[in-house]
Write a structure and sequence with these properties.
single chain, 330 residues, alpha+beta, 35% helix, globular, binds ligand DP6
Length: 330
């Protein structure tokens, strides 16, 4: 099945004509506590394993989609993006999936409330916001499962950004991916905090999409990854149900470090860490030795995210003065 066939199957019963001239939607960024790392189908962005994330409250993307006259136009954070730019091309290619038979063009005005280049996947909130804007522009009434599948076709992790709070993406087993979508968990955790340490804004040596494919193809440690996920997911679910920060933090930290271990064992190896990443990890470990309950996670980049609770906010700010703190359940 191609992405276009998948979209047709979902939208078959809906009118292909936009119902409005313009529509705006917002979606949160998310950080995975158990990572999505490796695809079983690169066309449909079907993952090798399930994953679990927490959405980042008011950090995310707001997108206004309007009908344009003769070509697509992209505005990112208030600045026009050239059509040849990789970002604009990726958006236009995604919108091709929805254009139907008649030529139709879009003006996409998108803005991130994620700290710029903080290593948070703005593509996750970006594609989720775009799908929600499309739904309102076209007047579809798709349920969360279908919206999540459509967002997945833009970027895997985007399927989790359709929801707030804790979200689990079931890998599914079907070839067409119709059982591979995200669902929210019912639990909340008002005292949970996520700290974002922006350690570098330099461009990454290799993007996460390429890195996960390279890892899957060449890393001997990748063979152990599905087992890692299988043991981490039930621990995370239990930690969330019992609001057990130690279990949540330790499992998420171990999962992220295991993902980076698969990268180090790839040939050639991929090392995202900077001296500042290592320094932050050591500081977090020192803080833990001194009794603070703070844990870390990292995505495919050098930046470090902290997991802790409200009562440790002051201590975290003292050690990491530049930290941006998010309350996912505020
Ligand atoms: C390390 O969702 O950006 O952040 O599906 O190829 O677009 P594509 O990849 P993407 O990968 C995210 C990888 C990760 C882990 C995660 O968010 O689960």
């Amino acid at each position: 099945m191609t992405r276009k066939e998948c979209v047709r199957r979902i939208l078959g019963e809906f009118n292909a004509q936009p119902q409005h001239d313009s529509a705006t939607a917002w979606a949160p960024a998310n950080i995975a506590l158990c990572k999505y790392w490796g695809k079983r189908n690169s066309e449909l962005y079907l993952p090798q394993t399930s994953s679990l994330s927490v959405s980042l409250g008011d950090l995310g993307t707001q997108t206004t989609l309007s009908i344009a006259s003769d070509c697509d136009m992209v505005v990112l954070n208030g600045h026009k993006v050239e059509p040849e730019n990789a970002f604009a091309r990726r958006l236009s290619a995604y919108l091709d999936l929805f254009r139907g038979d008649k030529p139709i063009f879009f003006h996409i005005d998108t803005a991130n409330t994620v700290p710029t280049a903080a290593g948070l996947a703005s593509s996750a909130s970006g594609f989720a916001a775009l799908v929600l804007a499309l739904q309102s522009l076209y007047g579809w009434s798709l349920d969360g499962c279908h919206l999540s599948i459509l967002a997945r076709l833009g970027s895997g992790s985007a399927c989790r950004s359709i929801y707030h709070g804790f979200v689990e993406w079931q890998a599914g087993i079907a070839d067409d991916g119709f059982d591979s979508y995200a669902e929210p968990l019912p639990e909340t955790w008002p005292d949970l905090r996520v700290g974002i340490l922006t350690l570098s804004t330099a461009e990454k040596p290799i993007g996460s999409r390429q890195a996960m494919q390279h890892t899957l193809e060449t890393s001997t440690l990748y063979r152990a990854w599905p087992q890692q996920v299988e043991s981490d997911l039930p621990l995370l679910r239990r930690a969330i149900a019992e609001r057990d920060l130690h279990l949540l933090g330790q499992t998420a930290e171990n999962n992220a470090l295991a993902m980076h271990a698969t990268l180090l064992a790839a040939r050639p190896a991929i090392l995202y860490w900077l001296p500042e990443s290592v320094q932050s990890i050591r500081t977090i470990h020192d803080l833990r030795k001194q009794g603070a309950a703070v844990y870390l996670t990292m995505d495919a980049g050098p930046n470090v995210k902290l997991l802790f609770e409200k009562n440790d906010v002051e201590c975290i700010r003292e050690r990491f003065p530049k930290v941006a703190i998010v309350s996912p359940f505020a």
